[in-house]
Amino acid sequence: MGKVTGFLEIDRQEQKYQPASDRIRHFREFTIPLNDQEVANQAARCMDCGIPFCHGPSGCPVNNQIPDWNDLVFQGDWDIALRNLHSTNNFPEFTGRICPAPCEEACTLNLEDIPVNIKSIEQAIADKGWEEGWIAPEPSATKTGKAVAIIGSGPAGMAAAQQLARAGHTVHVYEREPKAGGLLRYGIPDFKMEKHFIDRRVKQMEGEGVTFHYNVDVGVTVSMDELTERHDAVILCAGAERPRNPGVEGMDLQGCHWAMDYLVQQNRRVGGEPEGDEAPIWAGGKHVVVIGGGDTASDCVGTAFRQGALSVTQLDIRPIPPLKEDKLTIWPYWPTKFRTSSSQAEGAEREFSAATLGLVADEDGVVTGVKCARVDEKRKPIEGTEFILRADLVFAAIGFSGPRLDTYIAQAGEKLELDGRTNVKANTDDYKTSIDKVFAAGDVRKGQSLVVWAIREGRQAARAVDEYLTGSSDLPR
To answer: Which parts of the chain have pLDDT scores under 50?
Structure first.
């Protein structure tokens, strides 16, 4: 490494946040980036650890060559670092902002709770690439004459499209919404990632020959059979959108909503798009309860505070996790430990080991509270521990069960085989589905997961399609 003793001499430094009292007044990003010298110092902390777990199977799903670009940043070779980073990750400015950074948990220095600040360095490399004009369309010099349709423009679809276009194929992306990005755009709030980052990648991909078709709901406005007939291959990248039902009576009460309905509506509002036919969901002046303890629930918390909620309480059926993991038994894997998101730090109350028993309403059918109880180690309610939380607005955010089943999947019928969790069945060797010429990647195949996993699957599916169409491929896995 450029500075062999850097990890001994330089402390870990993280990006700072705007104060909560300031950031809840807007929907923009609120992190304060490190300057170039601070980033270089953090990169210098990357030690010559021999076996870099950070980019192994327990660290980075896209196998980012983290020690390599850390060294390049320390040496001041930012442009080469960007080239290295792009060799494994099409969209590092996305993952640098919203990835939970399993690479840092796998970092050797995390044995001492001071991992290299990999996520911030990744974001800094990508942002500098855009600032310096190093990122531009990379169209293929030759064309294969083959056409590929990609259903869905989330991170898996975007990654597959860019890789296939660069391999010389004609790529058409079909998106149900008015703009590209999938849940990157419509699910993740702007305060975590502003959407102009997606727009400029779309512009780059259009310069590489990718054609985006918006407001096309495959299975409604066009059938998958039509797309299969018009193209030499089709990749399903439509995501996992079906919300998991908490099994609580009263979700049809006025004031109770699925989390994604709330987040999508607010993202449309921030993006200046029509909000749709649904009535506005607004937390201003209300007591809000969010059922669920994951990232989507946390996004609801931050959104509610920015809308002016009086209080926000988050319910998690899991027991409160340990403050510190046992490194000798868990490292280098992602541990379950107590974490506080930036949204939770803005003032949320958190209830652990709390089951939702039902929803309380007034005589007009408007929700007024959430009935809860403490649970035992088997997550069964403990008699006598019941309590009611005041609630004017309730969001169910306990994850997703799989892809929508009422559109192209229903049209395909028994021809399209699903797995036991109702995801489209395909393996990670060739990503082929049970229908000839049709492949699947991302959450539609894997189930709900991270953006970085979607990028990985999109890239690997692109290679599989390239091999299918031409007999070989120079695209990386």
So the answer is: none
